[in-house]
Design goal:
This protein is α/β, with parallel strands linked by helices and 311 residues long. It is built from 11 helices and 11 strands. The chain has 2 domains: 3-188, P-loop containing nucleotide triphosphate hydrolases (Rossmann fold); 208-301, Endonuclease, Chain A (3-Layer(aba) Sandwich).
């Protein structure tokens, strides 16, 4: 089921919009306050909680379980979303769930002038103090994403939708997100006229090795999708797509794409270049290549034939 991540600039009214949206969709909000009060106390003492509020770098410190606080938070978020949808406010969720098929990533922005005026009114500050306040909070947002994930928080490719609240009321912004979420939800539902048989995937594979790899996934009880998305990776001077890449499989449990290649080694380097370009253009996308030897080993292990040509 669809869930929504909301990133926001301070003074853009993202918090208010998230609250309105939660009411419209009847979804819980997961935010930093909830995480600090209910989740992190499971693995953090008073000192650690203080450091987590003050330092982005401290998220890379290890918990008693041996994983970092950032990894702990990711695991909690993934576990929550696996059980029910929610609105995730901040927390780097646009990175954690990048390219998750059920995610809608939204960013709320406003111009510096408008945000400054809002902060002045909200906190009764002088203009220069409000500007300084915005500078510090914007820097903290960027530093958290950069420190933990090595990504640029302002990168527009991280978001499906960006709303400028200079010209939108809170209600209008929440309604726009709600309408998009409803359309995506309806579009993702199976057709009533063409129902899929229970427990059976109707897929026409392009190569025998893909079908046999799907059997391996089924034997391991791993859900998969076949070529669920095409990524444009090159454009001409007029913006027309000249090269695109469709990974063979998507594994929802691991939020990972798999590209299967059993071709001769001399052709593999070109596919590697496509994968590296995809990662660069779509930050946070997890994709792995299963090479010829890896596939043949798996096929032998599971008693399958193992195709080898032109894939």
């Amino acid at each position: 089921m669809l869930f929504i991540t909301i990133s926001r600039q301070t003074g853009s009214r993202g918090k208010e919009i998230a609250g309105l949206l939660a009411g419209k969709m009847e979804l819980p909000i997961i935010n930093r306050d909830l995480v600090m009060k209910e989740w992190f106390p499971e693995v953090a003492g008073k000192h650690e909680l203080h450091m987590l509020t003050e330092s982005s770098g401290f998220y890379l410190s290890r918990t008693p379980q041996g994983i970092t606080f950032a990894e702990y938070l990711e695991n909690k978020l993934r576990g929550f979303i696996n059980n029910q949808p929610a609105i995730i406010y901040g927390l780097g969720a646009q990175i954690i769930f990048a390219d998750h098929p059920a995610a809608l990533h939204v960013k709320i922005i406003a111009s510096p002038e408008v945000r400054t005026n809002r902060i002045m009114q909200a906190h009764n500050l002088e203009k220069k103090d409000a500007q300084r306040f915005l500078e510090i909070t914007d820097r903290k947002h960027k530093r958290y994403i950069s420190t933990i994930y090595g990504k640029d928080w302002s990168d527009p490719l991280l978001y499906h939708l960006t709303l400028n609240t200079d010209f939108l009321s809170n209600e209008e912004a929440a309604s726009l997100i709600y309408s998009l979420a409803q359309n995506r939800q309806i579009g993702s539902e199976p057709s009533a006229e063409l129902p899929e048989p229970a427990g059976k995937k109707t897929v026409v594979f392009k190569h025998p090795s893909e079908e046999e790899f799907a059997k391996i996934l089924d034997m391991n009880e791993l859900d998969w999708e076949y070529e669920p998305r095409t990524f444009p990776i090159k454009w001409d001077a007029e913006g027309n797509i000249t090269l695109a890449f469709s990974p063979d499989f998507y594994l929802p449990r691991f939020d990972t794409y798999i590209e299967l290649t059993t071709m001769n080694q001399k052709y593999v380097s070109e596919k590697k270049k496509k994968v590296e370009l995809l990662k660069k253009l779509y930050p946070g996308t997890n994709i792995n290549i299963v090479f010829k030897n890896d596939f043949q080993t798996l096929a032998k292990r599971f008693g399958l034939r193992g195709g080898t040509d032109n894939k």
